């Protein structure tokens, strides 16, 4: 940079003794003896206060010493002494830039160019300033001029390449970096820039080679380790990428992007606390690093801390009010807090600042469905608004193109629609058609061919799930299927999309031919799954995970099926079959699906008794009163529709003394909304909810089973039943008041009880439901009889392999 600060402009020669003093001081300066150089320049000024070279070089020395304000003062004196000297104006520009005076810096650079357009360095300096200000197109012109002036300099081509890359012109950028390498094959910045440009074009192999070449040439530079880490990360070399980011940080602790990108890797490994520390360190170094603000809030959201995340996004917006992505993420946090109207406002603000922010446009449509409604009418208005906004979204996407809009598929889904009673087939079919049209466009543009049928000895079955761990989807459905499928006939391949990794995950690995885990990007998963050339691909829980939604919206196998981990139609034309159960479906169930309904025998699964022993519990420690009927309400808050509050009120009124125990979900704000509504509903009936209802913290599996063992009744959630919860209650010998709804999702517990011959515990009207719950709580003899019959009949639920044999027949028929 020193060579770009001053040059050889002609000026009157100083006296010979002054020339000798200047030469000696300048020699000290070049040798790095800055104190001696400063003394020499100051001695010259003492003799001649208007000595141009002395005051100019004092400005340069102050800049090098990290004293920008002093540099500005000396540079202004130099400009006053020689107002026509372009180099002096250039030095003033550098001093003002270092002092934070961007407007003054730009003015000084432009004056230097006006005085002498051939000064190479000033074009570079102005380009750097404009890039820092985000004016990349103007910076590009500056760098192009520098290349025209000095085409033989590799650094000129590197700067031009960096500007082109900042504008997204990666192919042109790569050409400039190659031009630099033609002039100097060992120019490390050119290799680094080429690696970055190739990485942006998706050429990870060549990118990694270029970045490693740059690193070999300049291992002392932090940025070279940083670039190599970025390429290693894309290639999936996680451990190596972590080491490279750490090496970059060791060499330059204040390299904020390295802390941020290291946090990304740690977050992807579910090391959330470590990731959060990295992101916060990045923000401490550079509070303007927008991505780090988003990442801090994102980790807090994954830690079920949406209120904290909302504050982070608000802090980001206080710094950058036009930060569209922060408005969008704040909307997501507010939706998790149940603040739907405020979330909608955030999504609209995001679109006002960035009309092309597809995730915000998508979220605005999906978020019309409330999680916990205050009144039943709110659910109905939400469905109507969702239909309207879905139409707007369809039209919006049609004008943007599939490749751009596809990235939003699944970021939010109409998840809460399943928790509203009703036939939503047509609404979800519209949603599904939109998803598949966008993902098909992306699949074609990305060059992923459609799957073909391949004849082989063993049939390849793939299962894609984000819940291959201790989770109801795994415990109730997938685990039993995998354990009983004929491994001699079927090549089983499991793709775990989630981040949880526990003993059940380890067990899952032993049950399949192939297991993939740890990928984080759907653009990695799609070609990977397609490359396995599967015959049948099963998605056990479409609707619960963004990556699953994207993948299921594509055609990655000739036969694709959903199961009832999320018990409602996917609406996706790419899903051919819906694997359900004969004991759980109503007679007209086929009408509820866009897929072809497959009724596997019985419960459709092969379950085993719970392996986790109950933990001894002291209900009083949770605030549960002793000596009154204990009725557990174990559903998540959004399973309780306002129209059914009256049933709970009726049970409490008839029992008089009882304890209805609900469980606080994460985030707790959702439970607070339900509690507030129940307080209102009980109050309208002249009752105080606090006398009957209690919210306790969410319990671990062992503690929940311990509580089941001490309860009197499990109250099945009306409209969206609990299959795994019912199995746990039956395992503990706890009678259930069950509801038999019109749809699969409302018949999960009732199907289990009817299979056991306990039809008297199944209701289909509010009055009958309340009658069952009250009688179980009050009639000890009947309760004891029900419990005995339940314990005797529960063996019917376990080890049933007929559904698995039927699943195998389905494979053969579907593939043939």
The termini sit apart by: 71 Å
Spatial extent as radius of gyration: 34 Å
Helix fraction bin: 55-70%
Mean pLDDT reading: 93
Number of strands: 13
Extract low-pLDDT stretches: 1-15
Q: Describe the biggest sheet?
A: 7 strands, parallel
3D shape: elongated
**Helix run count:** 37
Structural class: alpha/beta
Strand order of the largest sheet: 3-2-1-4-5-6-7
Note the beta-strand portion.
5-15%
Features:
single chain; 816 residues; alpha/beta; seven-stranded parallel sheet; six-stranded parallel sheet; 37 helices; 13 strands
Structure description:
This protein is of the alpha/beta class and 816 residues long. α5 (86-98) runs parallel beside α7 (120-132) and α6 (102-115) runs antiparallel to α7 (120-132). The chain starts with 15 loop residues before the first helix and ends with a helix.
């Amino acid at each position: 940079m020193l060579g770009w600060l001053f040059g050889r402009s002609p000026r009157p020669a100083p006296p010979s003794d002054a020339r000798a003093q200047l030469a000696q001081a300048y020699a000290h300066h070049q040798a790095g003896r800055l104190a001696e150089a400063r003394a020499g320049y100051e001695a010259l000024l003492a003799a001649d206060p208007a000595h141009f070279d002395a005051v100019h070089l004092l400005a340069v020395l102050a800049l090098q010493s990290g004293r920008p304000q002093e540099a500005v003062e000396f540079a202004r004196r130099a400009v006053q002494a020689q107002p026509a000297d372009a180099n002096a104006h250039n030095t003033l520009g550098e001093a003002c830039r270092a002092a934070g005076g961007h407007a003054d810096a730009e003015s000084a650079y432009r004056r230097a160019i006006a005085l002498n357009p051939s000064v190479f360095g000033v074009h570079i300096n102005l380009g750097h300033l404009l890039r820092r200000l985000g004016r990349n197109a103007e910076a590009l012109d500056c760098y192009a001029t520098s290349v025209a002036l000095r085409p033989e300099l590799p650094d000129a081509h590197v700067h031009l390449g960096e500007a082109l890359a900042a504008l997204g012109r990666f192919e042109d950028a790569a050409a400039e970096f190659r031009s630099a390498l033609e002039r100097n094959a060992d120019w490390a910045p050119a290799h680094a820039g080429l690696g970055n440009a190739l990485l942006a074009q998706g050429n990870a192999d060549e990118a990694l080679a270029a970045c490693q070449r740059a690193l070999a040439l300049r291992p002392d530079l932090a940025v070279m380790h940083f670039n190599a880490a970025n390429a290693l990360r894309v290639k999936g070399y996680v451990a190596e990428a972590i080491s490279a980011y750490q090496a970059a940080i060791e060499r330059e602790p204040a390299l904020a992007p390295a802390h941020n990108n290291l946090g990304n890797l740690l977050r992807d490994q579910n090391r959330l606390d470590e990731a959060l520390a990295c992101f916060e360190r990045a923000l401490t170094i550079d509070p303007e690093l927008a991505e780090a603000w988003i990442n801090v809030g994102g980790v807090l959201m994954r830690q079920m801390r949406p209120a904290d995340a909302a504050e982070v996004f608000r802090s980001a917006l206080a710094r950058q009010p036009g930060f569209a992505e922060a408005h969008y993420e704040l909307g997501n946090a507010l939706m998790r807090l149940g603040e739907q109207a405020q979330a909608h406002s955030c999504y609209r603000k995001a679109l006002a600042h960035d009309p092309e922010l597809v995730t915000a446009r998508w979220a605005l449509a999906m978020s019309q469905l409330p999680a916990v409604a205050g009144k039943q009418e709110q659910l109905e208005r939400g469905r109507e608004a969702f239909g309207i906004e879905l139409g707007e979204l369809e039209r919006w996407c049609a004008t943007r193109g599939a490749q751009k809009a596809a990235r939003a598929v699944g970021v939010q889904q109409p998840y809460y629609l399943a928790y509203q009673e009703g036939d939503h087939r047509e609404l979800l079919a519209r949603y599904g058609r939109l998803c598949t049209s966008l993902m098909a466009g992306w699949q074609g543009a990305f060059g992923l061919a459609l799957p073909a049928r391949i004849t082989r000895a063993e049939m390849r079955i793939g299962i894609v799930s984000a819940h291959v761990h201790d989770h109801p989807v795994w415990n109730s459905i997938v685990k039993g299927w995998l354990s009983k499928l004929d491994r001699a006939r079927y090549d089983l391949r499991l793709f775990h999309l989630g981040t949880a990794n526990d003993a059940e995950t380890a067990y899952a690995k032993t049950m399949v031919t192939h297991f993939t885990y740890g990928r984080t990007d759907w653009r990695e998963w799609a070609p990977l799954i397609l490359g396995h050339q599967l015959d049948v691909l099963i998605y056990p829980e479409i609707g619960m995970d963004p990556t699953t939604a994207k993948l299921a919206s594509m055609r990655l196998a000739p036969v694709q099926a959903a199961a009832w981990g999320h018990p409602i139609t996917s609406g996706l034309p790419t899903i051919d079959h819906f694997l359900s159960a004969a004991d759980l479906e109503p007679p007209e169930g086929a009408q509820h699906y866009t897929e072809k309904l497959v009724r596997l025998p019985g419960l459709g699964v092969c379950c085993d008794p719970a392996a986790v022993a109950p933990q001894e519990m002291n209900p009083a420690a949770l605030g549960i009163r002793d000596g009154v009927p204990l009725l557990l309400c174990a559903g998540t808050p959004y399973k309780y529709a306002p129209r059914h509050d009256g049933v709970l009120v009726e049970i409490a009124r008839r029992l008089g003394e009882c304890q209805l125990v609900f469980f606080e979900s994460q985030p707790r704000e959702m439970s607070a909304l339900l509690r507030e509504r129940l307080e209102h509903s009980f109050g309208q009936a002249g009752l105080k909810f606090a006398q009957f209802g209690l919210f306790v913290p969410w319990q671990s599996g062992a503690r929940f089973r311990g509580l089941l063992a001490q309860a009197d009744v499990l109250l099945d959630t009306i409209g969206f039943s609990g299959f795994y919860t019912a199995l746990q209650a039956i395992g503990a010998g706890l009678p259930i008041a069950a509801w038999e709804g019109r749809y699969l999702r409302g018949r999960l517990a009732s199907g289990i009880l009817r299979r056991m011959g306990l039809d008297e515990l199944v209701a289909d009207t509010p009055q009958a439901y309340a009658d069952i719950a009250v009688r179980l709580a009050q009639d000890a003899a009947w309760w004891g009889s029900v419990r005995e019959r339940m314990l005797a009949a529960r063996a019917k639920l376990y080890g049933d392999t007929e559904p698995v044999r039927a699943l195998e027949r389905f494979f053969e028929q579907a593939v043939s």
